[in-house]
Amino acid sequence: MGRADGQRTRQGGGARRGERSGGGIRRVFSLKRILGTLFGLGLIAMAGFVGLYLYVDVPAAAEDAKKQSNVYKYSDGSVLARTGDVNREIVGLDRIPKDVQKTFVAAENKSFYKDAGVDFKGTARGLINTVSGKGKQGGSTITQQYVKNYYLNQDRTVSRKLKELVISLKVDRKKSKDDILAGYINTSYYGRGAYGIQAAAQAYYGKDSDDLTVGEGAYLAALLQAPSQYDWASATESGKERAEARWNYVLDNMVEENWLDASEREGLKFPYPDKPKAAKGLKGQTGYLVEAANRQLKAEGVTEAEIEAGGWTVTLNVDRKKQKSLEKSVKKTLTDKLDKDKRKVDAAVQAGAVSVDPETGKVVALYGGKDYAQHYTSNATRADFQPGSTFKPVILASALDNDAKTQDGETIRANTVYDGTSGRPVKGGESGYAPPNEGKKDYGSISVQRAMDQSVNSVYAQMGADVGMDRVQRTATDLGMKEVGRDPAMTLGSMGASPMDMAGVYATLDNHGKKVTPSIVKQASHKDRPDDVKPDPVGDQVLKRQTADSVTSVMQGVVSDGTGAAVSSGKYQAAGKTGTSDSNVSAWFAGYTPELVTVVGMFGEAPDPKVAELNNPEGTPAKEFDHVSLAGAGGEGKIHGSGFPSRIWAAYTLGALEGGSDARFDLDTDMGMGVAPPPEPTRSEEEDEPEKPDEPAETPDAPEPPDDEPDQPEEPPAETPDPPVTDAPTFSPPTQEPDPSQPTIGIPDQPDRRER
Questions:
Q1: Torsions phi, psi of 492, nearest 5?
Q2: Of the candidates 718, 738, 422, 731, which has an alpha carbon nearest to the alpha carbon of residue 561?
Q3: Which residues are CB-neighbours of 502 under 8 A, at least 6 positions away?
């Protein structure tokens, strides 16, 4: 074979090989094979998806998605505080207007009510962008976004996206569209620290979700695309343009879906949101109010864990105006007078107060201390200080309710006469008990009424023995006190009690003997509880009406002509009692008008020794939180209930009653200063020589014990608004002749008006 033939042969062979090679490629990449491969891959993908569907379960909700704040409101519905790590209050669709619900569907997923919970195209696009590093891409349905918020997290991974797809399909089958929409609206973030529509409605428009308009709803729905960029308060000009364009887009979609009338759409104007406000914390009195509300919720059976889990809406009985009046009165009357740099004792002064509506039992105002952030313990609810002589009305109530008799067999009444000698041993009681009067002052023969006016210890210690301390204890317990024993010293108020406790006692007296347990909570609701918590502060009759009304009548004398004269005013009718504890570590005034019961306590609590070094009553250096004497506080001497506590009470009451009240006590009684002054006993010749009628009770030459000066100046303090008239009685008693059936054994010296 020649060279040419060989070359042709080689070329021909090459051609045939090329032909065979090209044919092989065509055979390998034939349409049939391509379709078969794709079909196979599809089957594999489907099998994988089915496996994934069977493998992936709907997980439990993410912890962060369930977190809610507790919302606390004043009685008028305005927000007092929000507590918790997440500013969210979950609300049902019944709390979201129908047209507002539709704004979210129009903004995010018009086919929501028809789809199966997923958008496969959008999900595929999101997967591709995630894999290629192009970042987040929209297209998820409302169901998918809800699943991401409620069950998963915000990670941008392929595995998370696939889980989202599967779980969304399952959730769409298990839950109604309404449940999914509600979950989405409540879990989404709206900016300004607000999670969920209720928190967003408050943050942007200062209202509840119930009250949102369709225009406001459209703005909140628009925010979800870019909360920080679309917040009108911080958005750039271009951001504002995009926010408004998004708002228009939402409303136009609603018209397109026939969810909004075109004519109504034309009339809508962009609803500019409010400026952002600082989150309300627990500083000042807010923390004390929240703490008192939580304390009561626990008493009503709500566990601490349930409270901390959040989701509660708690409406308080606190009246905003009265609350401000109480805070202002404490500040102007007491705290503005304190100067710890000049007087170490001023650093130890604590004040607490509770004000109650006696007819309903509602706590309308509460003062817990100077600042919850600085002094965590609430002085309104703490019960570690003695109430002192504010307990004396309880002894009288027990005597009257039990028809108790004196050692001589005389039924105890307001005009019953006792021996008011200081340090006199109590008869019929525990051997050796002989309490002194304030300043060791002797009163001789004195009526029960005058002994209440002047807070004579020896009389009420004897009365406790006459009644029986077991009966006194039972009466105190019925009135709501908790730490009352049978020790004779209890007659001087040596038990522990809080202003809240004593407010309940005095409110029951003001409420004609029907039990009042002060309630700061009006109503507490939680979406996961079928029933709201609604305390009932008014209970059964625990004292006879005549008993309660008689004690009220007697305590009117304390105000008109006794140690409580500082609160006397022609602008309201009042009854009350002062109190000072052993070693002057506490001072009180507990009193009421026909419409308002208020108890004010002033307590001596040692600060950190680095702030002020003080001694405790035993004379040893006081540790922080020890009880210490109030003597000298505010530049005054011994602190009595007739001093700062009475002044605070008078200033607050006048403000709370908006300058005064014509209301009068409706009393079913025939005794006490509220009815008529009882006849005073007269001295016999064997007793001390009586004072001459035209001489004052204390002559200028008479020696004065240190505590015999009145706590109150003759004129009320200048800082008290509309100061009470201290020498004006609260009533005009009718003239009454002495009862011939009652003993007349001499008129004792007129006691000075001092706190006991």
A1: -100, 15
A2: 731
A3: 387, 390, 588, 590, 599, 601
Residue 695 half-sphere exposure toward CB, CA atoms < 13 A: 10
Query: CB atoms < 10 A from the CB of 726, how many?
Result: 22
| Residues tagged active-site | 108, 389
Strands 349-356 and 597-604: antiparallel
Per-residue exposure over 115-124, b if at least 16 CB sit within 10 Å of its own CB, e if not: bebbbeebbe
Counts of helices then strands in the chain (DSSP H, E)? 23, 15
Question: Is residue 483's pLDDT more than 80?
Answer: yes
Alpha-carbon torsion (679, 685, 688, 693), positive or negative: positive
CA quadruple 292, 297, 299, 300: dihedral positive or negative?
A: positive
Q: What is the pTM of this model?
A: 0.76
pLDDT level of residue 711 (50, 70, 90 thresholds): very low
Residues near 636 by Cβ (< 8 Å), separated by ≥ 6? 643, 644, 711
Per-residue pLDDT at 174: 87
Q: Kindly report the three-state secondary structure assignment for every residue of 603-666.
A: EEECCCCCCCCCECCCCCECCCCCECCCCCHHHCCCCCCCCHHHHHHHHHHHHHCCCCCCCCCC
Using one digit for the tens of pLDDT, what is the confidence trace for 277-304?
A: 877 789 999 999 999 999 999 999 999 8
Q: Which two tokens stand for residue 352?
A: 């607490």
What does residue 210 show for φ and ψ, rounded to 5 degrees?
-55, -30
Longest dimension (CA), the chain: 174
Return the bridge partners of 588, or none.
579, 601
pLDDT bucket at 702, cuts 50 / 70 / 90: very low
Region at 369 (left for phi over 0; alpha for psi -120 to 50; beta for the rest): left
In this predicted structure, what is the pLDDT of residue 163? 72
Q: What is the C-alpha separation between 70 and 297, in angstroms, rounded? A: 12
Q: Do the Cβ atoms of 361 and 516 come closer than 8 Å?
A: yes
Question: Which residues lie below 8 Å from residue 751, measured CB to CB, with a gap of 6+?
Answer: 441, 443, 450, 453, 454, 456, 697
User: End-to-end CA distance of the chain, in Å?
Assistant: 145
Tokens read off for 596: 């308002």
